[in-house]
Amino acid sequence: MVEMIHTQIEKNGFLGDIFVPNALIDNYSKFGEFGIKAALRLFMVMEDRDVVSWNSMIGGFLKVGELTKARKLFDEMPERDMVSWNTILDGYVKAGEMEEAFELFQKMPQRNVVSWSTMVMGYSKAGDMDMAKVFFDRMPVKTLVPWTIIISGYAEKGLAKEAIELYDRMERDGLELDDGTVIGILAACAESGLLAVGVKVHDSIMRQRFRCSIAVCNALIDMYAKCGILDKAWNVFNGMTKRDVVSWNAMMQGFAMHGRGREALNVFSRMKKEGIQPDTVTFVGVLCACTHAGFIDEGVEYFYAMEKDYEIVPQIEHYGCMVDLLGREGHLKEAFRLVCDMPFEPNAIIWGTLLGACRLHNAVELAEKVLDHLLKLDPSDPGNYSMLANIFAAAGDWDSVASVRLRMKSIGVQKPSGASSIEVDNEVYEFTVFDRSHPKFDIIYEMIDRLGQDLRQVVRPKDTTLPVEVGGVVI
Q1: pLDDT digit string (tens) for 422-472?
Q2: Burial of 281 (0-12, 13-18, 19+ CB in 10 A)
Q3: Could you tell me the pTM of the whole model?
Q4: Distance from C-alpha of 293 to C-alpha of 291, rounded to nearest angstrom
Q5: Which of 267, 262, 192 is nearest to 233 (CA)?
Q6: Cα(323)–Cα(330) distance, rounded to whole angstroms?
Q7: How many of the other CB atoms lie within 10 Å of CB of 198?
Q8: Element (H or E) spanning 424, and its range?
Q9: Are the CB atoms for 298 and 267 separated by under 8 Å?
Q10: Phi, psi (degrees; rounded to nearest 5) at 143
Q11: Half-sphere exposure of 401 toward its Cβ, with a 13 Å CA cutoff?
């Protein structure tokens, strides 16, 4: 369509008006690599270019990930404005190249709130909250955007104390909430499971009598659901005067992820009665509910009803749910057949799900076949080798265990320690096996030893010589 318009513009001699080719460059840039080539051809033949022409071309290169070409063009610009600097700065930040972004920021002749916010965002996404806070504190003017970025950054890292202190400061400074701020912070809380900050935001909403849009209510449902407070999520859901498909999906997935499959399917039934058309995300929630609750017959029925009754073609995530459902219930042959008959190439997640089911049911022979497929996709993932070794161990095949371990060693694959997290007094703590970084690690390990002694009496399998492992302690 853009090419047709371009042709008509040339025929009618409108390219002489610089606003027209600038608009064409901007539109071409929205169509990926093919579009950016057409934009560059037009840019190169333009007799007159203004700063908007250069900015549009630089922005186009960044949209397709061509940071080097964008920087080359930036360096060639005869003149630059604030948009030019902020555009290329944003390119470095999104590429995660914070050292280059810092150098560019230092060279800027002028900076505005966008420049500062971009740097705060970059360091937050990189996990360097100390540097993010330095830039935030030095900002001459702070709008809601940088406040949202820095509070969300701390929330994503599980740092409740810092997030709450900044949130309180924002309120004291008289900044009023808007949808973007509320949704941004709640999304960060949902991601990290940081309930305290999410509750703080909800309290502000209630106290300020903030008018909640559907999107804000959806964010509250998602936050409470992912933090495991399903009653609160349900209250928000039922209190909504209007709901969209996202509302229903968030509530359904909340029940599903916490093993309350029947409630999730009841939400789906109610959704249909109210005339809401389900989408692809809806059926991910439905199938997950069936998986976690063990409703194999209903899961199969819903899977095949997707296309027949709702004209929704199952995607790879729906096949993944079905493989998980069949695998957990021990239908490994059917799960393997489904993977092989998929209309697209199975990815590592699909094969990994099936390998996990093989481990659950000690299916050694099938596990070896699945691992062969996995290694073709990702030969360096140590988790796959480790899982196969565990399957052999459960079957008592210690020679094969040794063989797998030797194979891992020969190709330089080493399984990293798994990490767990727990929220205590509004702080999220992460720890690994044999972790001694916590100042009270000695008390923690004393408790683990006591748990181990108790568990020896109740969970040691009587018919196997395998040890039981709790928190890295073999009992």
Answers
A1: 666 666 666 666 677 777 778 887 887 888 777 777 655 444 444 444 444
A2: middle
A3: 0.75
A4: 6
A5: 267
A6: 11
A7: 29
A8: strand 419-424
A9: no
A10: -95, -175
A11: 10
